[in-house]
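Fill-in record for WD repeat-containing protein 13-like.
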Amino acid sequence: MMAIAMGNLATLWYQQVFALDAKYNSQRAAGHANFGTLYIRRRSQLLREKYSKNPEVRARYLKLRSELLRRRYGGATDQSIFGSRTTIDEGSDLGIRSRTIARRSIAENFAFAGVHHIFDQHTAAVPMIKFANNDRSRLCCASLDGTISICEATTTPPKVMVLMKGHRMGVTAIDWSISNDLIVSSSLDATVRLWGVHSDADPVCLRVVNDQLRSEVLCCAFVPANNNLIIAGNSQGLLQVLNVSTGIYPRGGTSKIGGKILALTCEESGGSLVWAGNDKGIIVSFHLDSGSGRLSKLRRIDGIGGAVTSISWRSWLSKETPWPALLVSSACNTVYLYRVANSQGFLTIWRKYPVKHRQYLVRSTFCPQMGACLIATGSEEGAIHLLDSTREGKGARVNRLQGHAAPTIALSFNYDESLLASADQQGLVILWRNRQRNL
């Protein structure tokens, strides 16, 4: 028991020092993303290999390093402290600033102020991450290094459970089935793979299906009303429905919208609408028959201004805004919030927010808690912006998290919002802890 306790204390110290280093990384590596990533990974290695068994020495080290970094870089700019059970002393002016940011009740829902853990198992960009449905801990990460990882986020310490290999090229997207026993993945190798991920057995690839045009598959998702079906978009602008139980593309289950389909989303709660967006700045809505897999094109929405890199659906935002909405990231430095105007899936702009986004496939997401009008978006400056959708302009920003030294391109909340995961263009995944929630 004593050995276990000592091990837990060493892990806590490691997390505290690592969180301190991560907090200043954006200033240390300004304009040099590769250096920032290499520095963080090297620090992680050294902290694991070289630490004192004397708790007094560890405490003094943490205090001295905190003071030296504060003198070298000053206060961390425009960010709340990286607090939580793995953070440094919050008695500083940064702690006061973080409490000020969260002074409004709505901001308390987004009080993500602590680096809970950092994963570095991937060696290339992580374009998509997603927590399992109604699960606080299991996080799936898709990487352009060709692998998929499943992590446990609430263990002490968090850990990588498995690394799934099979795709011959980068993995572009993943999705969990409703029961969390299956994962679908798409890849630049022109295939879709179905994985069995039962908790009592090692993951196994159940099926590999080639794209109909032998093109790169850039996005995929399970059809909510029928998890035997998945929908995917490829680099030739073809949206296609696939029956993963049989490996067959059903008749009438394809439609072409042109360009490269970079993002898609499905209406949930038994709905039949699907939206797909491409690199030309076009979103098209479809009706999907969840029984037969037949797709019918409905409406085309133009004039978005840049490539559509992320689409998310929400049944309603709040009592004041009780209509379905789409959250859209576009490579024109903008995140759009659209109202779904009719049963054809037509969209009308309700809000738009500026965010640095021109080159990479930056994603955004709704928070999972119903009744809270909160959204999160990555950015090419490496920051994560947390926004209140009831407000406009600069007044909408509730919080801003900085820890990535490369563009932040993927985000996911766990279902109770106790954790937010973010991933960047260099393959780093950070878990942020919500100080208002218990792990």
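KEY FINDING: The longest helix spans residues 2-23.
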